[in-house]
Amino acid sequence: MFSQADFLQYAQWSGIATLVFAAVAVLGFILKWGIRFRLVGTTGFMLVLTAGLFALSLAPLTRTVIPGAVRYSLVYDNGATQAVITISPQITPTELEATLRQAASDLYSYGRLGKPGENFLTIRARTILHPEPGTSVPFYLGQVKRSLANREDSQMAIEVYQDKFAQLPKASA
């Protein structure tokens, strides 16, 4: 993953290239080259590219990593107050708690809409069980509720359904 310092260096090189294209465009107008207007377009594109790279060097591109979290997949997200992730059936309760914290961090966005009286995001964790061939059953193992307004939510309510873990199939060795 690129760091802010990388983007700043790319912006500097892009800025130098922009100045070179601008100089060539001015030279094209002085010498009345046929491609002078294309050079103006290229210079404008390079200017936009340089501004974008510079903006990326200012914005933090960090992602919070929660220790102990396992890989999950987002299977449903209404863009507002509900989301569902899927996890492996071999997950432990402590891994599930860390994974719920990771999902709460990853899925937070300022753009989520709350309903009146419901200003929190609920993320439910499920796995898929196959009690018999050809049958799949979603099996919910826990959920987390976090604030829609506060990025650093210290009041997250994490529920791990301990009784559901006893119903999971045991991993064969």
What do these coordinates show?
The chain has 173 residues and is an alpha+beta fold. The chain folds into two domains: 4-58; 73-165, no CATH class. Helices cover 39% and strands 20% of the residues. The protein has helices at residues 4-30, 36-58, 93-106, 162-165, and strands at residues 73-77, 82-86, 120-129, 137-147, 157-160. It has a five-stranded mixed beta sheet with strand order 1-2-3-4-5. A hairpin with a 7-residue loop joins strand 3 (120-129) and strand 4 (137-147). Helix 1 (4-30) packs antiparallel against helix 2. The longest helix is centred in the N-terminal third of the chain and has 27 residues, at 4-30. The radius of gyration is 25 Å and the shape is elongated. It starts with a helix and ends in an 8-residue tail after the last helix. The mean pLDDT is 86. Keywords: Membrane, Transmembrane, Transmembrane helix. InterPro entries: Uncharacterised_Ycf51. The chain crosses the membrane at residues 12-31, 43-61.
Q: Oligomeric state of the chains?
A: single chain
Q: Strand portion, in percent?
A: 15-25%
- Distance, first to last CA: 37 Å
Give the integer mean of the pLDDT values.
Answer: 86
Q: Strand order, main sheet: write it out.
A: 1-2-3-4-5
Helical proportion?
25-40%
Calculate Rg over CA atoms. Answer: 25 Å
Give the beta-strand count: 5
What characterizes the major β-sheet?
5 strands, mixed
Which structural category do the helix and sheet elements fall into? alpha+beta
Unreliable spans:
none
What form results from the Cα inertia axes? elongated
Number of helices: 4
Number of domains: 2
Note the run of SSEs as H and E. Answer: HHEEHEEEH
